[in-house]
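step: validate -> pass
step: tokenize input -> pass
step: predict -> running
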Amino acid sequence: MRHNIRFLLIVTMLLLVTGSGTAQKFVHPGIDMNSADLEYMRNQVLAGKQPWKDAYDLLKEKTPLDFQVKPFAHVISGPYSQPDIGGKDLSQSARMAYSCAVLWYISREECYAEIVIDIIEKWANTLRSFDENNAKLLVALTGYEFCNAAEILHYNYPGWKKIDTENMTRLMMSAFYPTIRYYFPVANGNWDGAIMHTLLAIAVFTDNRELFDNAVYHYLHANANGSLIKYIYPTGQCQETRRDQGHVQMGLYEFSGAARIAYTQGVDLFSAADNRLALGLEYSARFICGDSVYAYGVPSQRERFKYRAGFEHCIDHFTAKGVNMPYLKELCSRTNMNNPANALWKLTAFREEFRQKPYELIDIQESKIAYHAGATLEQAQPVGHSVIEVNSREDLQAVLNTNAGSGKTLFLRAGEYRLKQSLTIPSDIHICGEGRSTVLICEPTIRTAAILLGDLDAKNITIENLVVDGSKEHQEAYDPNSGRFYRTGRYSNALAGISMRGEAGHAFSNIKLKNLTVINFSRSGVYISDAEGIEIDHCDFTENGAHVVPGPRLQHNLMIQHSSNIMIKDSRFDTSIRGCGLVLDHCKSLKVENCEIARNGWHGLLMAECHNGKIENCLVEGNDGCGFMGEYLHDGSNLIQIRHNKIQYNNEYGIRAFGMKETDIKDNLYRWNGKEKRQEWLSSEKNCNWNNYNGQMMKTIYSIILVLFASLSVWAEKYPHILVKDEDKVAVLDKIEKQAWAKHIFNQTKERLAVYVERHQAEPDWILDRYLMNRIPGKRYTRFISDKEGTQLIGYEGDAPVPTVRVSPHKRAPITPQGRAYVVPEMEDIVPNDTSMTMNLLNPDTQKYECVDPQAYVGTINGRINALAYEASVIYWLTGEEKYAKFAADILNQWVSGVVYQEPIDGPGRTGFLDIQTLGDEKEKPLILAYDFLYPYLVKYKYPLENYDKAFEKVAWALSFRGYTGNNWFAAESSTLVAAALSLKDAQKRNFYLDFYLNRDTVVDGCGQLSLPSASKLWFTPDGHWKEPGGYHNYPVSKLIEAALMLENNGYQIFNQYPILLNASYVMLKYSFPDLTASAFGDTGRPRQSMECLESAILMADKYQLPILPDLLNAAMILEQAGQYDRSKSGLTGLLCYLPELPKAKSVDNHLWNRSEKLDFASCYLQRNGIDPQNGLMCVVQGATYNHNHSNGMSMELYGAGTVQGIDPGNGPTYEHPMHVNYYTQWAAHNTVVAAGASTSGTPFRGGGGTKRIGQVELVSMEPSVGEKAISEEFSYTLTKYYDGSTKTNQDRLLSILRIDEKHGFYVDFYRSDNAISNDYLYHNIGDSVALYTQDGKVLKQDEVLSYPCVGEDHPGLRYFRSVRTTGRNESTVVALFSAKLLNTGTSYMKMWMPASSDVSYFTALAPSAKTASSPYQSKPSLVVTMRKEKPAVEEPFVVVYEPISDKLSTGLIESVDRIKLDSLGKKGCAIKVKTKEGDTFTLVNILKDGPVILNNQKCCGDFAIFAKRKGKNSVYVGNGSFVENKEFKVESENRGSFYMEYDQTSLLVRSNCPIKIQAKNGMLKEPFYLTGGERVFKMK
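step: predict -> pass
step: emit ->
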């Protein structure tokens, strides 16, 4: 009965607010204006009344009737409209539509109405999606204008048709609504203000009551910054006041616009919270117009005197309601009324119903509760002999220590007191600051709190009138929302403001905090326990309490526990991100009065187990939980008075309490608490906080959950279960018995372990002592502090009762002065129980041991031991031999005993748990897997088990919320995350962490985890290539696949839902050279296809019998036949998981290799001709901005004679090493052209593996295009262009393959660069030697020079060339010969033919070695040949013919390469003739602009042309052309395309990819013929 009465009361209240029941029909027209308002506007204009007449005339004058709609299918709007694709056009269309609708209504000129209909129709039929940073905001700012326009015409214009309604509805509901339906409250509040504005407009137009009610509720109750109460404080200050005044005005306009639509429909949001909107408008207008205001923090001066129009409707509304708005009127009077947008707002500002006589006007008043709170603007210096003046340069702790117990006042002068360690406060001390200008701020070395209690018996402590700030840097005028993302990281910052932890039995007493501001701490702002006598007076504790360890809802603005005699008054507890404003726990004799407790992420005030308390005259509003929550834990609270409080707009109950006795709750004012206006729920049940559900129902649900979790726990108790199940053991043993490859893995693993396992039986401490631990008492660190970049550790804190695991102190391996990594020591060489921070490591260059910081080798060494433990655990599982188990279990036990005390590194988002980088935490995965196999043994021999879940959860947490999502890290960490999650016994926690792989992203400021759905969408090309260099493909993909295998083994179906993983498993073959290696662009070694990924994919494709299985088997067969896969090297994963035998492929098919491919993200274009490893040809052109790219311009790689000869260099020693930063990533290391000696990235590169901003190579034309059939079996080409922004140079590169016969072919490279200062063409080849010759074989004389010509700081890195020699200027043909005689495939040569060119100097040099080279050339210098022009290379471009030659130099076929002069009657271009020893000639033409070019009675128009004369046949090839003519044929095409002719005396073969017309000369064909495309053969006369 009671619930029925409550329901009736709720319905009655809704009726009073809305004026009707939920079935109320919408008023139409009814968005900004109803019919009466529209008619009033029109009549005022027609009567010539002001300001309507002038506004109308201006709007009409500025509204063009020839407006052209420019709709876009996909509108892209980035931050501050950068980039902007269609955003500006959409905004213009929206404003135009609304303007024209208003102009039509007033003038009735149909042309305006038809413009509106045209705009809506074209956008509705075109627009599909919005994307990028500002997508939601753009939709929100334009949607309501479209809706207003459509609403006016729909209900007034006779020419409006049903199709127009359908178009408008489709536009809103298919494109606009899906983009904004979930709001965006974590952004600054102007976003949700605008979103609600448009959602209400859409709801009205589409008659969607549910959407309308949802937006109204959001307006009043949204979390974060999304509601009116969150956006405007009780003082009138706005959430963005400290950011800038432009956004403040924008936010207020949007909130008022939403209220306006609601009012049209009978819902009054203007009056919400005592006219809070009017208060915000007046406060902001007062400041913007130049007056002073009181603020928490400092109002921003940005855009202070820029006045936004559009608030006239607010003045009209509030004036009619009796609210005086003098400052807003002043602001509106200062706006520019020559703006047509302002004219539109002025026209539509007035309601007809408000034309009656207004009420008597009263001024709006701010709340006086807790006003002013916090540090004051200034402070007079205390006087007296007991005052000691302190300045910010002094050691404050030392001053405190000196005056401990003196009762003196320390007067802290204005300044920033940067605390390097927590400030400990002694007894009998008074600290007083100079108001807001006295700031205590923490250095990164502080780990606990800014201020700590110095003595458990401390007494008489006063802290007064200063600021304690948890930010990295103190800023009074800033965007407060920007700091919240940092503080919400679970371990980020991790500081409390003031932490005074007393203990029972001590006399901690008499604490006073007055006019104190404590802000921006991730932990509690102020925490006090076990104190007698606490006074908190006029304090402001705001923006404290985030989601940090040990978890959410444990950190608050103020928390007091186990204390008595507490007075809290006139204070402000606002905006705890994840906690409460105020928590009182186990306290006695307490009073809270005249406080503001608002906008907190949980409850306003949480009380538990308190006795004799009063809560009076407080404002409790806008909290995401209840206003007041009384929690029952064991006895409940009693004698609590809650009276005379204003409790409003909290998302749950106003007051909710359980098990409270002898309460006095009355005379409180409740308004709009909860979705159903829930004001009070006072339950006598002794119940913990069950949130929003009936207690009995929750008990039932909880019981069901316990049963479910219990069953899940039984499942989790089965060991092993991560990679295999115990029932799989028989199959694995059978595999070992019957399969030689499996037996080899098993035996090899046992042999490798034997020495360690046997030794462990005799010397159990031997292996344990070599595990790197913090062993010295006092230095058994638990907290590790990183520098701000996350590069290295800078601090160690804490002391555990047992040794803890050493954390890798640096993200990189130690590098010798020679630029190579030191040698990792063997296990026998590690000093036992080593606690030194240095090691003696072998320098591979000098072969001497040097004492150095081991850096990342700490993790490497421990990781090796972890791997041994995993291997031993598997052998134990398979054999039952307990010596293996004991070896592994002892390692595991030592590890878990230490790490349970350790916390993730305190540092930026990249830092991990036991490694400075989250990537390094993968080294813990072997121990997680070992635990899975060892669990029965650990139980049997009673190893301590209580710490494993804690340790594994720390790994899972670090990998869920740390690391990067802007590169491969999140994917590379995925299998460790999944393994750790699957190891957790608690099913709820297990599912929580697994969800971050399966479904949910955790990204904050680029750090966290991307789920598999997001990774599939964002990080894979359609065919499955990871969007980073090839060397980074296998790493993240293999881990994603491994994680998926683990989940498949635990009942999840992954591979049949995400086929992209199967595609990714073999896609590297698609981009491989004939030797099955792939191009090495960017930060990489020479990548290869991973057989391990392929095996896993075959396993899963076979499991689900997926149609991709034959292709996977075909790929595996290709690798096996090439001798590039040995299953006996697949390790324990292969032994445990792979199929015993691979299913047989029906036949080996080479369809994987197309003649051309492209990778769009890297602007990478390849051609190939032939797949034979020795004789195949393939070239790659590449250059773009992406993660791990290089500053390489338009770079090239060439394959020939069995290997990649023209190499891209890969990365340097480490990503921060000077050689990497200044050479390997720069132009000079690549096969490209350096312009003006200065080509470099758009922003300076300082090191790391990130993005170098170089723009991107653009494809001009290519034949064959990707996926299309080639028109020639011998010829192909790619034409690309590039703009070097650093030197403002335009370049283009035409690279072609020409096949002569099955064993021979060559490349031709035409490279243009228009820099007027200089252009250097660079080519790097592997080899032992390089020499320059004339075309007839004579050695060219070269002179040694000190260095290659460099400019200024030498950004390209040319200074790294050594042994530089030059010919000087040479205008004859030059031939370079590279020789590589040490390859496994035999001797290889590359002949580089450079036809004669004017003003060119030729150089040879040695460059740093390239790790991408074939063995043994990785450690040998790269050989370099360059051509240098100190003028543009455009009309006379660089031209090179590359001829790879195998075994014997004499087998090369090219005899000469010469430039050909073009006929001056034709267009400009470049042509060369290549002549072979067998008499064949190839004339190659690259045309500068549209042709035709003329040479030797031949004409052509196209990007590229080849005229070939060979024994027995002639051929003509044209790429992307429209015309070619020789003495036999003339071919024309209306549109550009590619075509090929091959002919002799008897037949003509023609192929084309476009329609062409062919005419034969000399009567060879009867008549012209047409070919629409494809192939045709003709018989000749």
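step: describe -> The first helix runs from residue 2 to 18.
step: cleanup -> pass
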